[in-house]
Amino acid sequence: MMKLSKYVLYDILRSKIILAYTIFLFIVSLSMLQMEDNSSKAMLSLLNIVLIVLPLVSLVFTTIHYYNSYEFIELMSSQPMSRTRILLSEFAGVSISLLSAFFIGIGIPVLLYAANDTGFALLFTGGALTLVFTSIAFFASVSARDKARGIGFALLLWFYFALIYDGLVLLILFSFSDYPLEKLTLLLSALNPIDLGRIFIMLKMDVSALMGYTGALYKDFFGSGSGILFTTGIMLLWIILPLWAAIRKFNKKDL
Amino acid sequence: MIRIEHISKRFKKLQALNNISARFDRGQVISLIGPNSSGKTTLIKSILGMIKPNSGKIFVEEQLIDGDPSYRRDIGYMPQIGRYPDNMKIGQLFKMLQHIRNMDESKLDKSLIHQFGLEKIFEKPMRTLSGGTRQKVSAAIAFLFNPSILILDEPTAGLDPLAAEILKEKILEEKKKNKLILITSHILSDLDDLTTHVMYMQEGKMQFFKDIETLQEETGELRLGKAIARIMKGEQFSNDWIGKMIQAKKNDKKPL
């Protein structure tokens, strides 16, 4: 499988978009960490980049890459090569390049200036979110036949996870505010990888003290060892399930 | 070598393949003929596993094509429109395919690469190539791994006369090696010296599958083009074509 991924990677590196993305992340995170004298404030700004920009770039880049390499996929499918292997190689190539962009662009500055608990949580969340949204983007692009629809679908998913979902959760919390909802909010957070990542990082910061009763419950849950295990497990599910669905769809598709 | 059992494929409104069964064997050169959108390419792509039929089974070398892709090792495919990664150079494309197939350098058949003079343009990126050069690359790839089954979708379309001749020579050469060759083409004169069998399709249905001698006998035409033209026009086959010929001779003599 690595054989094919090598060519996918080679193709991605040629386009230089990944290089620009890496430099962008590097400059942003470096300037934030240098300008703020309080590193936890800088981390809060970085958190927003990780939660908003990273999923968006992963989704759009993966979708565009998929449609651009359609010829490659078509060529490979006439060779003795299974469809599963082709798609997994594509996934490996894209996620390796996006992950390295993230770890070079944000990882290095964070390790230099804020190598603490929060920093590692941020890196973990960023890496996981990159993989999750790459996987979701593969599902979106395999499902839609043409480029415009594929990118549209991917953007819609981003809007949903980054913006709409929070609104829906707030709506639920307000309308049922008379009931004890702590357990429910915990469950709801697991249904959105961005929310899960946000909670996971926030609880490592001092600001979590401001979050009141729910925050205390969260701290109790996520702060413990089982909380880390829970986060990792849910993130893994978010990576594996869309990819699995994408492979299933891809195997039945006419090329 | 290839056995097709009752395959059907439907694209929304269009019935592309309608219950087709056939058997292709070693040493045959089969011409797939039919009007546009009669399902020729769909049939070919189904054999390659690129299109999944709604029903029916396809066997290659007695192996059901479902899942295990190793059967494609024996197949060389030349697509109708060769589409390749834009950024890749021709040389890289060949190198990549060799790397993926993992075949001994000595077993490769590079004759078409030499004959088409592709080495000289190995450094050209695929996106800059003209349609004809693309076809040359596709042909060279199809023959490169010395497969025992060749599937050529409109091989001569877009090629210049010289290149088309080279390709035809190559196909004839492979025919002598007792391989199975499947060709679709609208240029029937190209198929004349190659074909051993004709499969005629229309609107997703197989109208007939006959060897060339039978076809010539039934239509009374020696040239494949004329024979097929007769069928396409919907003329009835005349079994006593000898009688017709005599009639024609008589008519010729009348003015005398």
Write the H/E string of chain B, N to C. EEEHEEEHHHEHEHEEHHH
Largest interface by residue count? A-B, 25 and 28 residues
Indicate the CATH topology of chain B: Rossmann fold
CATH C-level of chain B:
Alpha Beta
Q: What structural class do helix, strand and pairing data of chain B support?
A: alpha/beta
Helical fraction of chain A equals over 70%
Distance N to C terminus of chain A = 21 Å
Our count of helices of chain A gives 11
**CATH homologous superfamily identity of chain B:** P-loop containing nucleotide triphosphate hydrolases
Write the element-wise H/E pattern of chain A from the N-terminal end onward.
HHHHHHHHHHH
Shape of chain A: globular
Short précis:
Chain A is mainly alpha-helical. Chain A contains eleven helices and no strands.
What features would you describe in this structure?
The complex is a heterodimer of chains A (255) and B (256). Chain A is mainly alpha-helical and 255 residues long. Chain A has one domain. Chain A has 11 helices and no strands. In chain A, helix 1 crosses helix 5 (83-113) and helix 3 (39-68) packs antiparallel against helix 5. The longest helix of chain A is centred in the middle third of the chain and has 31 residues, at 83-113. Chain A is globular. The model of chain A has no long low-confidence stretch (mean pLDDT 88). With 256 residues, chain B is α/β, with parallel strands linked by helices. Helix content of chain B is 35%, strand content 24%. Chain B is built from 9 helices and 10 strands. Chain B has helices at residues 40-48, 90-101, 111-115, 131-144, 161-176, 188-191, 212-219, 224-232, 241-253; strands spanning 2-11, 14-24, 29-33, 55-60, 63-64, 75-78, 149-153, 180-184, 197-202, 205-211. In chain B, the strands form 2 sheets. A 6-stranded mixed β-sheet of chain B has the order 6-7-8-3-9-10, sandwiched between helices. A 4-stranded antiparallel β-sheet of chain B has the order 2-1-4-5, covered by helices on one side. In chain B, helix 7 crosses helix 8. Classes of the chains: A mainly alpha (255), B alpha/beta (256). At the A-B interface, helix 1 and helix 4 of A face helix 2 of B.
